[in-house]
Amino acid sequence: MDNTSEKPRLSWQATFAALKHRNYRLWFFGQIISLFGSWMQMTAQGFFIFELTHSPAFLGYVGFANGIPTWLFMVYGGVIADRFSRRKIMMVTQTIMMLLAFVLAVLTFTNIVEPWHILLLTFGLGVANAFDAPARQAFVNELVPRKDLLNAIALNSMMFHSAAAIGPAVAGITYAIFGPAWCFTINGITFLAVIYNLYIMKFQPAPKRIVNKSAFKELLDGLQYLKTQKMILLIMLVVSFSTFFGLSLATLFPAWAVNILHGDAATNGFLQTARGIGAVICSLLIASLSRYIVRGKILSTGLISLPILMILFSLNSSFIISSLILIGVGAAIIAINNLCNGLTQTLVSEEFRGRVMGVYSFSFFGFMPLGALWIGMLAEHFGSPTAILINSLILFIFVGVVWFYTPKLRKII
User: Fold this and answer.
1) What are the Cα distances from residue 41, in Å, to 70, 112, 370?
2) Which residues of 14-38 are buried (b: 16+ CB within 10 A; e: fewer)?
3) Sequential DSSP letters for 355-386
4) How far is CA 248 from its chain centroid?
5) Which residues contact residue 140 at a Cβ distance below 8 angstroms, ignoring those fewer than 6 apart?
6) Could you state, in order of their start, the residue ranges of all structural domains in the chain?
7) pLDDT tens profile 151-186
8) Contact 138, 226 (CB under 8 A)
9) Residues with Cβ < 8 Å from 196, sequence gap 6 or more?
């Protein structure tokens, strides 16, 4: 469809077009409840670890433990997503995640939890996510027709960051009043919503895929196909850099809340919420205008904005200013990740969708823990403001290279 053939207009029907489809509605509402709990746990766990260890570096260790399985299993998880029912894969992985949340809650309630317990459980969560993420990324294509695909991806981002806007604030208050164990318990309970909704979805019978190759050979076929897709490879490079040097900023929120803003668990939660608010606003705009926007231009704007906002963040020590800047950071991050996902989903061949989305998921989840480890160690040695400033400058240089040497990316629709 020609993006300039119609005048852009905002409407509820356009913004929530994907919700016309029953299976997507089930997915949307089940996921938003589950993600609310996940953000509660992530926020509470980060502050809980900082209370136990008083170490910014240990925040990075936990992020790294979560990401090791990404390097070990996620690309193979893409092969699994092409071989088996993506819905059934997610029912298994989501159940495992639920059980891990309950284990952490029990350990915390009984006051026997140690930092190494959290590292081990985080590693287990990473293993489940390594198989869940490729199936989840490829699954959206089964829930809506192609014309509503970008809208569905934008709404996925909106629900993720709506939970990010509410969950951390509720986590901060819950943590301050009742303690972290209740945050972990609530997360475990919320998984039931997405598991049940996956169970009651209805699909037309699909032809059974004939598998006559080994999983390793299918993986090689997928990588060979990806090698020929230069634009997808560029998009994955953008995701990797923005995750490693940009998204890793959130790793330091607990330390920033205590050491720079002189706050507590609630302060940490409100920082996460501010980022989520910006992401929700940007997601709604993309969902509303998904049929009209030149995606490459919006992606480039997000890439330029992110390091500039990070520089401003590193130079201030005000809670209000930090929160306002994080609203912009959230919008920039969603512009990058949402549009990179949408572009990849549009460009990939259906035959290789699971494997390519496995590599795409790896470019996000694989570099997130490395970025967390990197920025945590920088903060340990040079302080949080300097660590964020270093990351922002490196990201700014990368964005400059992309801007000048790959003009095709700015023009892609």
Assistant:
1) 20, 18, 21
2) bbbbbbebebbbbbbebbbbbbbbb
3) HHHHHHHIIIIIHHHHHHHHHHHHHHHH-HHH
4) 11
5) 24, 27, 149, 152, 153, 156, 345
6) 12-201+215-411
7) 887 788 778 777 877 888 888 889 989 999 999 999
8) no
9) 30
Other beta carbons within 10 angstroms of residue 162's beta carbon come to 21
CA-nearest of 398, 368, 410 to 67 is 368
Q: What's the pTM value of the predicted model, to 2 decimals?
A: 0.74
Give CA separation, 108 vs 97, 114, 133, 179, in Å: 17, 9, 28, 9
Q: Which ranges constitute the DSSP H helices of 246-318?
A: 253-255, 265-288, 295-314
- Structure-derived torsion over alpha carbons of residues 36, 37, 41, 47, reported in degrees to the nearest 10: 40
Task: Copy the structure tokens of residue 219.
Answer: 């993986």
**CB contact at 8 A, 374 and 244:** yes
Q: Cα–Cα distances in Å, from 362 out to 21, 63, 101, 331?
A: 29, 15, 23, 22
Average pLDDT of the chain to the nearest whole number: 85
| Structure confidence by residue, pLDDT tens digits, 106-137 | 999 999 999 999 999 999 999 999 999 889 88
Handedness of CA 202, 206, 208, 214 (dihedral sign): negative
**Sign of CA pseudo-dihedral 356, 357, 363, 369:** negative
Amino acid (one-letter) located at 46: G
How far is residue 257's CA from residue 264's CA, in Å, rounded to a whole number? 6
For residue 63, give the nearest of 347, 375, 303, 294 by alpha carbon. Answer: 375
CB < 8 Å & 24+ apart, contacts of 220-228: 221/352, 221/355, 222/78, 222/79, 222/82, 222/352, 222/355, 222/356, 222/358, 222/359, 223/355, 223/359, 225/349, 225/352, 225/355, 225/356, 226/352, 226/355, 226/356, 226/359
- Output the six-digit token pair for 199: 């169970």
Q: Which CATH architecture has domain 12-201+215-411?
A: Up-down Bundle (1.20)
